[in-house]
């Protein structure tokens, strides 16, 4: 049988019993999400593992539900947006009843017994006068409320077997017992004496914390709220027994320099399990929990202090062994991220500091460690400062560092510390520091252990001062400890993989010698072959003999110490496009008809990225290819990984007939045939080329293929534009993921641009200098230069950054009726007599005639590129913003828009109109939520 509704793309076959399904085991649940296992009378698509109860196949396609009586709900195979049921807040794993208002109910919640019986009792309640409340007596065992469902009064979790009242629209839930509590609408509370607090329902679109217990927001929680000060108290926190008895003792403490407000004293027996107030904050002195203790509380500054911490051991000033130059003073850190100079942990409580020296100690380290710490004179390994010997009194002081010698933990051990330089070493590791060594790189003197900020003479790396190295006191020669290890120290015989003679270690300071393997210079360690007169860097010894280079992957490249070059012949490196000197090492294509050549240094700096070592020309390399992203369903239809609906191929005439669409993949205008979603609420389109992009895409600049992901706002690392299309992700050397846009991912290592059509451009990742298009300095990833820059004088200084290289050649400005063309040369650049010849028609500021601009010749209209394109030219208006981005204050997915017509919606965050700026709004017309894109959360 084939169901009449299209909840599955293949025909379904009917089975009377599970035993009729061959080769299948029991335990399969219904794909509708009803929660029941499949046993008898069901439909199945065996290939897709889709199973459906006969009763579930007869679900009504449309229902009118009292939880959302404004519109009918339509049965869909899955939730198109958030994927959560708006009643139980659980993830929807199957069918869903959906409204375009972004309202979803899974079938278990939609078909509650009260709904099926037509008996949903309503009540009007004084707590919530906007809508009536529905009474739910007992939920069926299939319906499980998510852990995020709390009672809006007591902020306790709602169990599925409890009776409660609810307004699903406002996400208000009340225990039956809590609904019977008489709550005053306004109170005057000693925690906030300036204003009256009003009982207010604060919904999901307000990030709210109780200013006393500091618990996270409750969905649609009831608070006593001050709209002027944004001060909030949970109901149970507002009605502590001390408030009810009007007995809130205050104390004017002795450290008024630290905090000028009086403290409220909270007795330990008032915060108990009986009133269910759970404090999330810890004491700002000892960082211990406040549970079961009496404490002081400052509502203005939001800090807590144990009673014992106020009266015991908290002096305003102390003289500490870690900083004997000045006394350190107690201060309130607030929300500043300051790290303790001893334990290196960040604290936001009280802290002892010396402002003149920028020295900080948290209260734990200042008070938990022995006050009279034995201090020794300058240690031979660290002569800059005296070291302090530390023996921990408690394991509460957690040191966020390790021994600089053995790299093991410091917990529970005795150690030496320099608080100024923030390095440590175990007492047991001191013996290792007593050993002097001899090294071939500096044979004339022994080397002593040192902690110092120096440059290693062996590898040219810079020490951070926290790791041990070895230094010659007489000659200031320094070498990393790791560079003295056996794997770096050559034995009596060292053989290069491509050299049969013995190599002798050789190091002379201030001696400029070029490496014969890579052609690079430097003062790092080198090796000498006396017979061949070769000088090699220590890291060039293992340069591979043959490689496959990613930019020339169809042939093998071989290494030569002397480049074979005919008389009068000139060769250019195909990576940096500079001259190849025949006297130094290089890589040349082994194919007889190919002249492809690379500097040895260009290969060396791309180790692990652009080449792999191979043994022979027939060896296969693992080159990733773009995976398929879509599958043809029927004629002209595809299913793309980035969208939940099938896409239909639109005719070119439909698109170009005044309908200005933009591609969701690259955010550029669609001018030819493209794929679009037929669902009117989606506004989703893809160029034919963008629809073929797979989930992984090879790129010349990266070793691994880029991971392709769907749509979310991000900043492209190459062009620096804020984008909203496909994201191409790679992981940097620091382990952090970075993203580039579709336009930048399409640029090859060698490309062309019409502004410099006579020559090719290549990517110079190390280039620093101004861009010829915008005049700005190149970014971290360099730019594109002319391949003949070393030969042609006119091309020597030509360079484009990614931002200018990817600018649209034509653009439209909403207040100009002709398309504007990107122009590279001002026709009036030599006319300095009229200052208005070089003005931007949009911002009316002067523009540089040497830089690019957009122009309409017919109207003599000139403008800056950024003025024409705007601040966010590559974020598609009408596209959906991923839930949670930029706007945690609204639960539903938002869309990007620019309001250009009055009346302008007001920003929910700042209150100003969203006029002529990129903003976010909630699509349903009855929801007035809007927020500036730039407004902070």
What's the topology here?
Layout: E1 13-17, E2 40-45, E3 50-53, H1 54-57, E4 62-65, E5 68-76, E6 96-99, E7 103-106, H2 107-110, H3 113-116, E8 122-125, E9 128-136, E10 164-167, E11 172-175, H4 176-179, E12 186-189, E13 192-202, E14 221-226, E15 231-234, H5 235-238, H6 241-244, E16 250-251, E17 263-266, E18 295-298, E19 303-306, H7 307-311, E20 317-320, E21 323-332, E22 338-339, E23 346-347, E24 350-354, E25 359-362, H8 363-368, E26 375-379, E27 382-391, E28 414-418, E29 423-426, H9 430-433, E30 437-439, E31 442-451, E32 468-471, E33 478-480, E34 504-506, E35 526-529, E36 534-537, E37 546-549, E38 552-560, E39 586-589, E40 597-599, H10 600-604, E41 611-613, E42 630-632, E43 637-640, E44 646-650, H11 652-656, E45 674-676, E46 685-687, H12 688-691, E47 696-697, E48 706-709, E49 714-715, E50 722-723, E51 727-731, E52 737-740, H13 742-745, E53 750-751, E54 761-764, E55 783-786, E56 799-800, H14 802-805, E57 810-811, E58 820-823, E59 853-856, E60 861-863, H15 865-869, E61 880-881, E62 894-898, E63 918-921, E64 930-932
Antiparallel strand pairs: 1-2, 2-3, 4-5, 5-6, 6-7, 8-9, 9-10, 10-11, 12-13, 13-14, 14-15, 16-17, 17-18, 18-19, 20-21, 21-24, 22-23, 24-25, 26-27, 27-28, 28-29, 30-31, 31-32, 32-33, 34-35, 35-36, 37-38, 37-41, 38-39, 39-40, 42-43, 43-44, 44-45, 45-46, 47-48, 48-51, 49-50, 51-52, 53-54, 54-55, ...
